[in-house]
Each structure stands twice: as structure tokens, then as C-alpha cells.
């Protein structure tokens, strides 16, 4: 099973699909799923944009890609996604329409993840709930934790909610090992004064092979977590520079070759530079 992993797409919903498609074409290696570490930019209504998204959308219409292309059927996009046949599985970030996502989560309360777009290709994980990805006879186990943490007692919907913390407490009691943890925020074990305490608690009590996250604005890095087991990977935000190219470490490939055999590839900028700010929508 092979995964393409991204973070912080901010409305550029089609871009991960196009990068995965290009990777398949040029390497001959099939992508089975896309994972996305939050800040999807899931705003179906422009009336509910947060201040940061509204500001950026004035300069870059790509911020509104969910509204423009994923809330009503575009036959060209539908045909493309059906042919590609890859689902993108996400966690919430802090730049989403959480009222919209809350309603969908409520309507799909029996599902561990739920579709948020008109094509049913973009899914959001319920935080702290065990997930399975299946491809033929292969199974990959993962957990997603969305939103961000807060150290100032704020409770608006950007921040992890009490019902999600309850699910995480259930997770802490499990003896199951997992392949992947995807989060938007990082854990709170650094001295910079931000992060999510629940992520640290999960990493200290549940065994994961990999933890992928975004959000922080830090460059790509891969290191062993404080728990001495998990490989922690900060994915660069899928944001174009002023020169129109994507940063190093903005596309990761993880391949599960066997029960205990994984291979991680940091896709080169030589590859991602083929899709620039100026041509990726062509």
C-alpha cells in the first residue's frame, strides 16, 4: 500500500490529487490513498470565511478552491477524480468552516470518517477514532487528531473540543499498535509555548510507527519522537513561494511493503517544481 501525504493545502483541494497523478505517471507506482494533515480550507460558503482566509483569498483565489470546485458538480473535475480513483483522508485544521464540518460529523455519527465534498473523494477523520485503510488484502491502521491546542483556555471551534478529548481518552486505554498518527498541530513538548497536550499524551501512551503533522510554519524535518519509537515528520505546508514553487518536504510518500516493512520517500523539489503556481490548474 502506498500513501501520498500533504499538509496545509488551504483550498488547493485538487493539487494533492494532481501531484499524486503525476507521481503515478512518472514512476509507474500506484498511489492508493492521500493523507492530508489539516487546513483543508473547507469553506463551502464565503460568508463563513475566517479573517486569515478572507485576507489571503483577496490575493489568491486558490484559497476558495473548496467553495469553487468541490461544493457543486463540475463534470471535468468529476471525470478526472473518478478516473484517478483515489480518496483523500484529512484531519481538521484551524482554518475550516467548523460549523459545516460539525453538521456533517453529526449526520455521519456511526462512521470513523465522513465525506465533505460533492464528489465524495475528500474525507475527514473523527478525532481520536481508529481508522482502517484497506487495499486488497493489505490493511493500514491510523488515527487522526484535528484542530489545534490552546494554552489560554479558549474554546472556540479552532481548538480541540471536549467530545474529541473524550474519544482520545478511550484511545489511551487501547493496547492496539498503529501505523500512523496524522495531526494538524504538533505536541506541546517544546519551549515555544504552543502545541496540543492531547497529542503528547497519545504519543506517550500509544505506539505509532509514524506521526505526520503540519501547521507550525517550520520547514520539513524528520526525527525520532521523545518516546523513542515513533518517527515524527513535520510536512512543509503545500504553499507556493513568491517564485511560484513548492517547498522541500511538501510531498511525502509512505509505502507499506509488509507487516513491519515501511519505506518513506521525501519527494524531491525537482519533481514538485513541475506543478508551479502558474500551471498547476492547467
TrEMBL record:
Gene3D superfamilies in the record: 3.60.21.10
Pfam family for this entry, one: Metallophos
Domain of life: Bacteria
InterPro entries associated with the record: Calcineurin-like_PHP, Metallo-depent_PP-like
Domain Calcineurin-like phosphoesterase: 1-217
GO molecular function, one term: hydrolase activity
Name of this protein: Serine/threonine protein phosphatase
